[in-house]
Amino acid sequence: MTELKVQSRSFTIEPMVHSENVRSNFAQRLAQACTKAGIEDHGRGVILAKALKVTPKAVSKWLNAESMPRQNKMEELANLLKVDLFWLQYGKHHSGSNPNEPQQPTEANAEILGEIDAWDRKTPLSDDEVEVPFFADIRLSAGSGEVAEREHTGLKLRFAKSTLRRYNVPPECAVCVKATGNSMEPVLPDGSTVGIDTSSTGVVDGKMYAINHSGELRVKLLYKTPGGGLRVRSYNSEEHPEERYSQEQATDIVVLGRVFWYSVML
């Protein structure tokens, strides 16, 4: 039943690298969205660069499938072009949308709030950066289910302070761990790195949470049910059907925090 595990050994996190096919498909969607938004091919790079406050060279690389935007610029692009962020980034639509054209933005039930840059421990933090610990081991107490001990190897991930503030994540309450298993695919493939806001434990329907379920650490979508119960759902519902718990049964479930960020290596 365990869906979330942490490796006890230290390791090196490499920069996220997008395959040529992924970049090419993104460039095609970007061009399609620009045309739909009335931004003609001539001067397109300059227009996007000014709107997003990036260099024309950066936009040129996006348009020519040489690179992809960072997550914050991907979100700004989707808002600027009035298209679905999920479609622009992954080429997929939420249920009920038209796959043949860009859609208006819809509310996502999971968001990526940051990315991993190439850096080492000697690289100084910028004024807008904060380091979030990646715990090599998390032991849960048998009683309350709260985190009883955290062994930290020194490995940390960097986030923009402005991003954490925008999503109301206190830096001191943010931790990162590694998710395993296929129950949350395709959103969280096996091996994803997950950021948890331990200050956010109140259940909001449809949000993703890390929970201690009778001593097992899991990542699931949670929904409140009448009478104080809980509905626990996986993205991979074919292999992992939803679970329903009464108010009494739900006492075995302790919410450790809301998932506010994740990183997927392609």
UniProtKB/TrEMBL annotation:
Question: Is GTP-binding a UniProt keyword of this protein?
Answer: no
Q: Which PROSITE patterns match?
A: HTH_CROC1 (PS50943)
Q: Does the keyword Transcription regulation apply?
A: yes
HTH cro/C1-type domain boundaries: 48-88
> What are the protein's GO molecular function terms?
DNA binding
Q: Which UniProt keywords apply?
A: DNA-binding, Transcription, Transcription regulation
Protein name, per record:
XRE family transcriptional regulator
Protein source organism? Vibrio natriegens NBRC 15636 = ATCC 14048 = DSM 759
